[in-house]
Amino acid sequence: MLDMTPGKLAERSALRVNPCKTCQPVGAMYAALGVHGCMPHSHGSQGCASYHRTFLSRHFKEPAIASTSSFTEGASVFGGGANLRAGVKNVFDIYRPDVIAVHTTCLSETIGDDLNAYISDLDIPEGKLVVHANTPSYVGSHINGFYNMMTGFINYLARPEAEKTGKIAVFPGFVNPGDMRELQRLLKAMGAAFTMFPDASGVMDAPMTGHYEMYPGGGTRVEDIARLGGSEITLALGELTSDEPANALKRKCGVEYKLLPLPIGVAFTDRFLMALFRQLKRDIPAELEEERGQLLDVMLDGHFYYAGKKAAIYGDPDTALGLANFVMEMGMTPKYVVTGTPGAAFVRRAGELFRLHGAKDCLAKDAADLFELHQWIKNERVDVLIGGSYGKQIARAEDIPLVRVGFPILDRYAHSYFPIVGYRGGMRLLELLAGALMDRQDRDCADEDMEMVM
Length: 454
Ligand code: SF4
Fold this sequence. Notes:
By secondary structure, this protein is α/β, with parallel strands linked by helices. Helix content is about 45%, strand content about 10%. It has three domains: about 25-155, Rossmann fold (3-Layer(aba) Sandwich), CATH 3.40.50; about 170-280, 3-Layer(aba) Sandwich (Rossmann fold), CATH 3.40.50; about 285-445, 3-Layer(aba) Sandwich (Rossmann fold). The strands form three sheets. Strands 11-10-9-12-13 form a five-stranded parallel beta sheet, with helices on both faces. Strands 2-1-3-4 form a four-stranded parallel beta sheet, sandwiched between helices. Strand 12 (about 385), helix 17 and strand 13 form a beta-alpha-beta unit. Iron/sulfur cluster binds near residues 48, 51 and 137.
């Protein structure tokens, strides 16, 4: 029986309302699109592939190519082996990718299709590759799909006997192409030789040239994934997203890895650069020290507008944790921090951050939905919402400013070109946050208080 007492929240275990996640294949498709010359392939029915592609296209405002095994009743009953065989042949014949990255769907998982067996039976053209990942959507979220596909690539392609490359393998976590570009800029500024995997820059933010290219110039090269086994170390960014693939590379090729939070805000960016400093034994260049100082400067400049303000943060686990840490660095309170992706480590990690900053009465929850977040907000209000587009109903209903950060952002443009990582990303976040809070103040204050602040 549900307890409907005002102010009390009913416990739900078998219902999600306005979920704060999407399904595994969406993440698998994004990871595959970060590999040069790759065709993601959805092993299931056509509707799933359409949904995954549409979801990615709406966020990135770019075409998200993919093929599908196009299950009908026959494949659903007898298995999708014949569909996969025909699909892979057609895709190689017609669209000529270097690699096809197959992910499963709810349907192919439920009927128990054995992708290892199917793929070992395929007639794959010389020089071409097929990899796969199991991505059942009734488990986890797009984050699990993303790292499962990364792990699939590593399991198929990374060579334990690869020669030492002297490079750092960098796993960027589930971030936008703009973030990947910013990480690359930081790595280059540090003089690092690296392979970023996956790398959606130059693919999901490719320029308009007037000519459609099915496989734009960006993306991690297949041969570089094969050589990951010869890396010096893996820097796995996003503790809850990149652990699994970094571990897979260690298991297969013996490459040690360092797990780091997404470099959002001051301390987490410091940790990324200090890891590079220790690995490369090179000083942090003056230009990055200057950027750090600039971020501290803008944090101080506007602190009276955001210090003490309460935020509700929702989204992907590593992004939400990075944002929570950053708002605490700014003197705000991350009153609610939620992710739709299940995993107790998220709550544990959020608790550690709350304690580190002395933040009191904050709530963190994994496998949460935005309906529940809305109920929390009704019981105790916040000053600002930080997360993707699906929070806009809460923003409207409660008249709370929403700062769009993370995934998915379906109702704005150009966001995915700009970073939230690094010191510069911190400056952008701060501008967005402070702007939203100051706009609200300007809207609500008396005419005589509409002064220009110094
Ligand atoms: S059926 Fe499963 S894989 Fe297909 S779109 Fe729905 S949740 Fe995703």
